[in-house]
Specification:
Blueprint lengths: L1 H54 L5 H13 L6 E5 L5 E3 L15 H8 L6 E2 L3 E2 L6 E10 L5 E10 H6 L11 E6 L4 E5 L16 H8 L4 E7 L6 E8 L6 E8 H4 L1 H21 L3 H6 L1 H55 L6 H23 L10 E3 L1 H13 L4 E6 L7 E3 L1 H18 L4 E12 L10 E9 L7 H4 L17 H11 L3 E7 L3 E9 L15 H4 L5 E5 L3 H13 L3 E5 L2 H13 L6 E5 L8 H11 L5 E5 L17 E4 L4 H21 L1
Parallel strand pairs: 13-15, 19-20, 19-21, 21-22, 22-23
Antiparallel strand pairs: 1-2, 1-6, 3-5, 4-5, 5-6, 7-8, 7-11, 9-10, 10-11, 12-14, 15-16, 16-18, 17-18
Helix pairs in contact: 1-2, 1-7, 1-9, 9-10, 9-16, 11-12, 12-14, 17-18
Length: 691
């Protein structure tokens, strides 16, 4: 029995490792495609400017150079962003002089772009830059004369070291690895990285399993083999990156790493076996009488193991999501904020308004996807407030089913007890369940939503602590869920639909669980499904608050003095521009120590800042939490707002306990910033009058 258990445990370790590598490969796919897509946006911008000048008659080198420099400043990871003439000479861009001008006519990507007008983005094989002398890959796009003939190339270089280091935040153990591989099996980037000589030929991946997957035209796969580079046995998962040109990300975990705990289980198992064999003879009759009880315990243990596997999947995704959340939301803040600010700079009838609105919607969709991923991150504590389930359901139905062929029938008593919940997260969970129901009824139908109060006893089927709860049922009459899929519907990336991302129900499960509730499903094929949520109840109806008074501080047009602290220059510039547009005086700084000194100086001059916006996380410097404590020690009447995209710190969930008056989540636009000032206007003005 012990040997069988150890064999099963070994297979379970391998299965969990395979799932972990698959999840990491999916997220690395999104990360790498995001990096290359961001560079491609800059290439497209330079191509458009280049072609615009050609259309006007001739290129103005100084103007084009300045435009390229501005684009490169937004992408500090690039080695170079340059443009060539038709002959292949790199004559436009930063650091281009007659002495450094090089010809790209011999490069494969230049020849390919010149001969094939419709290729779009082309990614080169690894090469050594002619100007920088660094190992890199080059992303390029073709530039055309007005008549469609070849006018040159716009290209950007990103070093292999940068691609390798972008993987460094992912924990793959002591002997694991991550890599980026071209379609011809050339190794583009690897972590831990390799350092071949500059003149060494490119390293190629020699894997029959990978070649078999490519021959079968599969975009993702998992296999176990020994590395052709270092000879270590690993489990590999690869995935094709979402780009026009084939690239593949690999995640590998070493056998010696993922079986380390299993080896300890072997030692413990051998010791236990010796003890077990000694006492078995004496206790054989006792064990026989306990046989039925052991079978029930085994079933309970299997249920707990299934739940543990599900939580491990959420945990593995959460670790990676939490690691990239801060930087990703800073990028989204810069994009969304600049788009909303740009709309204000143009007349409503301007032709670019529709383009800016489309880009803003795309950024918001990216933010929504990020929120679903971040729901899995550890430490994402809900920001709770007393609210009504009826109001949240009505809002979710209105937003989700508007314009669809599915009718929502809501039967929830208005006297239903209130709950404490994060309004945004809970509305998202309800919306995800409603979307799933609508997709189950593609030809239309009725979605019934009911709610009632109940008291759960000890040992209830929902496995929740005893007490008062609300039960909310979402019943559709669609195609139903096969029994084999019922145990997987809440797993990340599991979906029964070809175009499904598999995040909606997993996100809803995580949100409800973090609120102290449970989410379950009952379904029969051909008859429909019922998703049931249990949420802890407050035992009393929601008491609606009186509307807040008008904001005198902003109504009278008095400008506020505002200090903005953020380590990202683009966010500082964005916040300064938006606040100045709203009529206020702004000062910015890069970290908490500088913010404290600026506040100290303003306080000494008798004109302290009316409001301080502080970023919670400053890598390598003082963050918003410590800065707030020092500023409040100088001036207990100081008004501080914390900003963050995501953090394991509980400050965003309970900001008032740390001295902040509000929390401003990233990404945000000018509308969100104006709403924040409106909500703080009365209190800020009152504090200013007291001084």
């Amino acid at each position: 029995m012990i040997t069988y258990a150890l064999v099963q445990s070994r297979e379970a370790h391998r299965d969990r490792t395979a799932i972990t590598t698959q999840n990491l490969a999916k997220v690395l796919d999104a990360n790498i495609s995001g990096i290359f897509s961001k560079i491609d946006v800059a290439l497209l911008a330079v191509c458009d400017e280049y072609e615009r000048q050609l259309k006007n008659g001739a290129v103005t080198p100084q103007e084009l150079n300045q435009f390229i420099v501005r684009q490169q400043k937004r992408l500090p990871e690039l080695v170079a962003l340059r443009a060539t003439d038709p002959a292949g000479l790199a004559v436009y861009g930063p650091e281009v002089t007659p002495a450094t001008t090089k010809s790209l006519a011999h490069r494969d990507y230049f020849t390919t772009q010149r001969q094939n007008p419709g290729l779009g983005l082309v990614i080169s094989k690894p090469l050594v830059g002619g100007i920088s002398g660094k190992r890199m890959v080059v992303l390029s796009r073709r530039v055309n004369f007005p008549n469609g003939s070849f006018a040159g190339l716009v290209y950007a270089g990103i070093t292999l070291d940068y691609l390798s280091q972008s993987f460094a935040t992912v924990n793959v153990g002591k002997r694991g690895l991550l890599s980026l591989v071209a379609a011809d099996r050339t190794l583009l980037a690897r972590y831990p990285k390799l350092n071949p000589p500059l003149d060494a030929p490119g390293v190629r991946i020699n894997s029959p399993q990978f070649e078999a997957f490519l021959a079968a035209r599969q975009d993702a796969g998992t296999y176990r083999t020994k590395s052709s580079i270092d000879g270590r046995d690993r489990i590999y998962s690869f995935r094709k990156v979402s780009l026009s040109q084939p690239l593949y990300v690999f995640v590998a975990l070493a056998t010696s790493d993922y079986l380390a705990n299993w080896y300890r289980e072997v030692y413990d198992g051998v010791f236990f076996m010796l003890v077990f064999m000694t006492i078995t003879i004496a206790l054989a009759m006792v064990f026989s009488r306990q046989w039925d009880r052991s079978r029930k315990a085994e079933q309970a243990l299997k249920t707990l193991e299934d739940e543990r596997l599900k939580m491990e999947k959420l945990e593995s995704l959460g670790v990676l999501a939490g690691g990239i959340a801060h930087d990703f939301n800073n990028i989204l803040t810069g994009i969304l904020g600049n788009l909303s600010f740009a709309k204000l700079q143009l007349a409503p009838e301007h032709g670019a308004q529709s383009l800016l609105e489309a880009a803003e919607k795309a950024a918001l969709r990216a933010g929504d996807l990020a929120k679903q991923l971040l729901t899995f991150a550890r430490g994402g504590v809900p920001v709770r407030e007393v609210t009504s389930v009826a109001l949240l359901v009505d809002e979710a139905v209105s937003l989700t089913l508007s314009g669809s062929n599915v009718k929502g029938v809501v039967e929830i008593p208005q006297t239903l007890s209130a709950v404490q919940a994060d309004v945004g997260q809970m509305c998202q969970a309800f919306s995800n369940i409603i979307i799933n129901a609508a997709q189950a009824m593609p030809d239309g139908g009725v979605l019934n939503i009911t709610a009632n109060e109940l008291v759960l006893d000890v040992g209830n089927p929902a496995k929740l602590p005893p007490g008062p709860y609300l039960r909310i049922d979402f019943t559709d009459h669609g195609e139903g869920i096969p029994e084999a899929s019922l145990k997987k519907v809440f797993d990340p990336y599991f979906s029964t639909r070809p175009k499904g991302r598999g995040l909606g129900l997993a996100s809803a499960y995580s949100i409800v669980t973090r609120h102290g509730g449970s989410l379950s499903v009952a379904s029969r094929v051909g008859e429909g499904s019922t998703f049931t949520i249990h949420l802890p109840s407050l035992g009393r109806p929601l008491q609606l608050r009186e509307p807040e008074a008008a904001v005198p501080g902003l109504e009278d047009g008095t400008p506020l003095s505002i200090l903005v602290m953020d380590d990202e220059e683009v966010i500082r510039q964005l916040a300064e521009g938006m606040l100045q547009h709203l009529g206020h005086e702004v000062r910015t700084c890069a970290d908490g120590a500088e913010a404290v000194e600026l506040y100290r100086g303003a306080l000494r001059d008798g004109s302290p800042y009316n409001l301080v916006l502080a970023d919670l996380t400053i890598p390598g410097g003082m963050g918003g939490r410590e800065a707030a404590q020092q500023i409040l020690a100088l001036d207990p009447q100081a008004r501080l707002v914390v900003m963050s995209g995501y953090s394991n710190d509980p400050v965003m969930a309970d900001f008032k306990e740390y001295g902040f008056v509000k929390a401003l989540p990233k990404p945000f636009g000018v509308e969100a910033l104006a709403a924040l000032l409106d909500s703080l206007g009365a209190a800020t003005t009152e504090a200013r009058d007291k001084r």
